[in-house]
């Protein structure tokens, strides 16, 4: 079964003998912000690489399952065709071309579009991130960490994606900069781009998203509306760092009941 938007169905991934994802299913409806939470090694980056078809660059492969965008299979396409189909990934670790200028980094993200399309995309990016216009001729490696993250997001936007895949955009940023990135993600979404956001920063992600999934050791263990996950004792305890003795001893409170649980 598939539907509108990005749909991942029963996706399993291995890196050689290492099984990194096991039958993961999730949906990013058109226009939504959806988040995947999970700790180190849960499989968040692997999931995004499987969707963007960049797994092979990391020695990984999909062993079962499908990825579709509006019923169109993406899982047999090469990575550049996935971008052309409207799905663009911002990899973790804010990788920019450090020795290239900011302007050239953005140009690299726009390869393939029409001149008018590129120019419109650049205007949008400069409006979202004025600092990138001010620093257009500076080497990207000289930008601050937060500015490099902005550039990484901006470079992906140059391809005018319908779905943006974001891998831990807040990682290593001071709270103020993380909030600015979050505000920008909201703005990008308001302008019509769907977002799949993977994060360890659950507080930030759950504020942005309408729907959330929890990934643990390669499997989805919990999913539901973001507001309900944010209120669930399990998520509060494990991902929001809330210590609540009563809640800890009462794992099945009403807030948890509407969430879908996979393990058992
Ligand atoms: N290139 C690789 N080769 C072999 N194993 C890998 C590779 N990349 C990831 N893995 C393994 O796959 C599993 C999932 O890793 P992944 O990087 O997707 O997790 P993650 O949730 O993104 O973690 P983090 O929050 O630390 O970025 C881990 O067990 C990891 O060791
Ligand atoms: Mg990762």
UniProtKB/TrEMBL annotation:
Keyword presence, ATP-binding: yes
Determine the domain of life of the protein's source.
Bacteria
Q: Which Gene3D superfamilies match?
A: P-loop containing nucleotide triphosphate hydrolases (3.40.50.300)
The answer to whether the entry has keyword Transmembrane helix is no
Record keywords, A-Z: Amino-acid transport, ATP-binding, Nucleotide-binding, Transport
Q: Which residues form the ABC transporter domain?
A: 6-242
Q: GO terms for biological process?
A: L-amino acid transport
A Pfam family hit: ABC_tran
Q: Which GO terms describe its molecular function?
A: ATP binding; ATP hydrolysis activity; branched-chain amino acid transmembrane transporter activity
Q: Which family does it belong to?
A: Belongs to the ABC transporter superfamily.
Its recorded name reads ABC transporter ATP-binding protein
What is the protein's species of origin? Streptomyces pseudovenezuelae
Lineage start: Bacteria, Bacillati, Actinomycetota, Actinomycetes, Kitasatosporales
